[in-house]
Every structure is written in structure tokens, then in C-alpha cells.
Amino acid sequence: MKSINQKSKSAIENAIKGLNGQPILLVGMMGVGKSTIGRRLAAILNMPFADVDDEIIISANMDISDIFENHGEDHFREGERKVIQRLMDGKQKVIATGGGAFINEQTRALILKQSVSIWLYAELDILVSRVNRRNNRPLLKNGDPKKIISELSKIRDPIYALAQYHIRTDNAPHSKTAINIIKALSV
Ligand code: S3P
User: Fold this and answer.
1) Closest ligand 1 atom to the C-alpha of 137?
2) Is residue 127 part of a domain?
3) Which domain covers residue 165, as residue numbers?
């Protein structure tokens, strides 16, 4: 009989094998935990981690809110696509995207073609309680976050559902979600 350690070791090996050299791209709504879960997942898989929003901030030398305010959302989406394209450089890694990246048709086509995509989803109230901790999201600045996220979810969820894997996060510890992703990938 295999020990728990052997089991998790072979789950990790199988998950990595199943990636066929492609990066893992995490998609899903603001507040679902893409960045934190992505970091945990990368650590377990012993791969580099990249956060698209952070990379955009570094490239533009500007906060996301300032990019939206000064240049508009379309400009942000274009930059977002370029950053994702640059990050998908043929190396295996875990990439956390911003909530709107996968909704953009061209960016989605890129992600679906060149990566293993994972939709992380959670109950509305959980998303709202998480986004309320920070006030740095331009799309949530002008209105009630719960209403905005609920409206966005109606439009976005069927699109997020085009991702290859669907993983519920809710209130699970982020490391547990990372393990659930590995389990799903290893099957
Ligand atoms: C956005 C989500 C944000 C960020 C930007 C737009 C969106 O990222 O990219 O504010 O359209 O949902 P997080 O999902 O990391 O909050």
C-alpha cells in the first residue's frame, strides 16, 4: 500500500506530466484567490509563479487604477494580453490572471491555445467579503461591490466555464485548493 507521501508525490508527478510542458493559467472573478492559490500551487509543484496584474504594474510603472483612469480599460486589456503572451514563454509555470483577462476574446484564445486553464470559483458572498478588504479595484470603485460582482458574474461565469478545469474554492484554505487543483490535474 502506498503511503500518503508517496500518493501525493505521484499525484504531483502525474499533474506535471499532464501539463505537457504548458503553463497553468488561473482565471476567475476578483476576490476568488487566484494570486494566493497560484503562489501555493507553484510552490508545491516547484515551478515559478507570475501574477499578471503585478507584471502590468511593473511594465507600465503605474497602478491598475491609474491605467484605467488615464488610458481607459481597452488600453489595459491590450497591455494585459501582451503581458500574458510574454509570460507564456514555453516554460512551465503557474500564472494568475486578473479577473477580466479570460473574458477578452483574443486573450482567451491565447490562453486556451497555449496553457492549461483553470477556473477558480466561489460563492458571491465570499467574493464580496474578500474584495471588501482592499479598495484598489477600478471596476468596483463606482458602486456597490456586491451588485457589481453579481452582475459581472452573470456575464462572465459562462465564459469562465470555457476553461479546461473548474475548481470551487469557497472558504477552503488556499493550500487545500492548491491540492484540489493537483488532484484534478493528476487524473
Ligand atoms: C479585473 C480584475 C483585477 C484587475 C483589474 C480588472 C477584472 O484583478 O485585473 O482591476 O476585470 O475583473 P483581480 O481579479 O486579481 O482582482
Assistant:
1) 10
2) yes
3) 22-178
Quote the CA–CA distance of 73 and 70 in Å, as a whole number. 9
The three-point CA angle 53-138-37 to 5° equals 40
CATH of the domain at 149: 3.40.50.300
- In 3D space, the residue among 105, 106, 81 whose CA is nearest the CA of residue 95 turns out to be 81
Cβ contact 24:116 at 8 Å? yes
pTM above 0.90, yes or no: yes
Check if the beta carbon of residue 187 is closer than 8 Å to that of residue 167: no
- The number of the ligand 1 atom at minimal distance from the alpha carbon of 56 is 9
pLDDT tens string, the chain, 187 residues long: the values are 667 688 889 999 999 999 999 999 999 999 999 999 999 999 999 999 999 999 999 999 999 999 999 999 999 999 999 999 999 999 999 999 999 999 999 999 999 999 999 999 999 999 999 999 888 899 999 899 999 999 999 999 999 999 999 999 999 999 999 999 999 999 9
112 CA to centre of ligand 1 in angstroms: 19
